[in-house]
Amino acid sequence: MKIAFIGLGNMGGPMALNLHKAGFSVEAFDISMATCEALRAQGLSIADSATAAAAAAEVVVSMLPAGQHVERLYMAEGGLLGVIKPGALIVDCSTIDADTSRRLAEAAEKVGIEAIDAPVSGGTGGAIAGTLTFIVGGKAAALERARPLLEKMGANIFHAGDAGAGQTAKICNNMLLGILMIGTSEAMALGVANGLDPTVLAEIMRRSSGGNWALEKYNPLPGVMENAPASKNYAGGFGVDLMLKDLGLAQENVRAVKAVTPFGALAHSLYAAHSLGGNGALDFSSIIRMMQKPE
After folding, report:
1. Rounded to two decimals, what is the model's pTM?
2. Same domain, residue pair 150 and 12
3. E-strand spans in the chain?
4. Both 175 and 83 in a single domain?
5. Are residues 66 and 99 both part of a single domain?
6. Active site residues
7. In this structure, is residue 244 part of a structural domain?
8. I need a labelling partner for 60 at 20 to 30 A (CA). Which of 145, 237, 263, 267 fits?
9. Are both 54 and 115 inside the same structural domain?
10. For residue range 180-193, what is the model confidence (pLDDT) as tens digits?
11. What pLDDT sits at residue 271?
């Protein structure tokens, strides 16, 4: 199976490498030439452009930062919908607004191409290990076509519903993740301010009623988990600005359906303030710095 993979950032790069290692024929592309060269050195075939990668592909996988990038890649004048051959499949793993995913699916169908939205959860560690969770929106038959690829990049695959449903489920998940990280950061900072050993405190809470994913996999305090971004000066991982984008998508949806998410709104405001403080490129767990006493 010939696969084009567009978008090779912290998530997309490892995902593309896992497909390559699994034996798929992958032609990849990213606008960052430095990123492309680094992955070429690991054996990944790099195309000269997104168009060149997609022209002969049976499946086009994309992992892009935001809805406007997906729109421009596929649906703008000269976009990939005019290049991808009929009968091919688009698997967009970007986390974007559900409306853009629905419009992509409709536009693709008009030219004989299937498209599913398949945003992921699991962070960079999951991308590297091939243990991501895929949250898929689109036709069930199209998901089955994509399943052999998704199984090489992830450990869990959920069909959330029709086109756009994957995005909706993803923003619900990430809103909860943002809230949980803030709560975990508050609790860890409070314990440390009282002189508790952070590693001991984290283990107590992890095994008690406060246990959550952040305590299990992604502790926000440096030194508690060796491989967590917090212990790497908050480098890599899932950026503050990406979390802010997802929380913003959630709030846009809240207004559209007239839902009530006071904690989601507060999390959005806190991450916005953290980003304005110059922390946008740091991992989102760096939000704990807002709760810590100055040294």
Report:
1. 0.91
2. yes
3. 2-6, 25-29, 45-46, 59-62, 89-92, 114-117, 120-121, 132-137, 154-161
4. no
5. yes
6. 170
7. yes
8. 237
9. yes
10. 999 999 999 999 99
11. 98
